[in-house]
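thread: overnight batch results

M.L. [08:02]
morning all. the overnight job finished for the chain we discussed friday. pasting input first so we're all looking at the same thing
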Amino acid sequence: MIEVVGRKKEKISIEKPVRLSELYDSIGVNEDGFVAILNGVPATSDHIINPDDNLVLLEIFSGG
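M.L. [08:03]
and the structure it wrote out:
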């Protein structure tokens, strides 16, 4: 299960393994604006995401 948390909240399922950078492209988010947590551990864009993995994409907010 993939969960996007930020300005919009969304849950996504995938059918086959996919590279995290390709997932960002397919769901239309900018990877520079998110932190990826894969099975409880920070992940980089070259990690492979499997359908049974738990991935949370946390949107980065800043302000003053």
